[in-house]
Amino acid sequence: xxxxxxxxxxxxxxxxxxxxxxxxxxxxxxxxxxxxxxxxxxxxxxxxxxxxxxxxxxxxxxxxxxxxxxxxxxxxxxxxxxxxxxxxxxxxxxxxxxxxxxxxxxxxxxxxxxxxxxxxxxxxxxxxxxxxxxxxxxxxxxxxxxxxxxxxxxxxxxxxxxxxxxxxxxxxxxxxxxxxxxxxxxxxxxxxxxxxxxxxxxxxxxxxxxxxxxxxxxxxxxxxxxxxxxxxxxxxxxxxxxxxxxxxxxxxxxxxxxxxxxxxxxxxxxxxxxxxxxxxxxxxxxxxxxxxxxxxxxxxxxxxxxxxxxxxxxxxxxxxxxxxxxxxxxxxxxxxxxxxxxxxxxxxxxxxxxxxxxxxxxxxxxxxxxxxxxxxxxxxxxxxxxxxxxxxxxxxxxxxxxxxxxxxxxxxxxxxxxxxxxxxxxxxxxxxxxxxxxx
Length: 439
Known about the structure:
By secondary structure, the protein is of the alpha/beta class.
């Protein structure tokens, strides 16, 4: 990794020399006086520096997306490391497999934020950064003089993104918040599952990841505004996990406010259109079919050789199909059970009906579509063995993102960042290390 890391930086516009040009060391506020430009970078965000102060999922996932597209992300960890290093199955090197993907393309520092000198290091980095992403409990960074107002005084152009359970204001502001809680309080968990069973969670940390996407949107919108206005002013981006998830609940609130209807759990059925479900196959698998428009439904009937249902008053339009959804799904299930999954998908494709198998990660890893679009990556790691991970999303034709290195050892880049970004001498680094301020 010691060889791979500098090579990745020297090969692109975010080298130490270029960073020095885009983020001059004096005066402190000058970091925002020459906003990054989108049109002259090989990747869209090259020349952008982002300071990541966070752990686990939401903040680090947001920063990972920016890093994939060229931002120089400096991740600050405590001496014990980001807890994600030990979540899930562990690699032989002692870090979780998840860690290698979540911390990819990032420069990894260990700084003790409880130590005044550690806080001073972070303030120096804020002076030379375009954006901060943090997901501490509200008020924590303010106590360390690292909050938004502190950052804005150091660097008026900084975009400061905070992710928390309930946001930076309101009566729940100080409550601790995790994805599990936010998914439950946002309405998502209430409608997920079957009506005769308890609510269930989605199999991934979907709440944190939705919040991360909104964070990326907020950061990029703020930077674009700064670029267009040429006023060197940043902004505060406030993302609440509950609100991020709640924003995706479609018509639930509007229907309740106007008709008093509370959306309930419907299993795999869509609440507002039909048929759209997963259906059993002869070989014990499941296939998703989406024939829930008036244009596609007749194609499904032709594939089923059941055009007699076209005139059935139960299925003449979407509203009728929703009212008789259980009957319709029973008819479709009886038909799909006559075929193996691959046969069924092929048949439906011939009739131009949207369909696809329910796929495990093993299916995805072997799938030619995922492979053709570089979604199954193998990236060199600190240990020298390539690490598999998902590819970059979205795909940009002219300035695509890429993964240059994986997450790695605790404090891997601490000295390099201090010397390259802050101009520290070896003696300063040794002194800070001796005091336990860095690792």
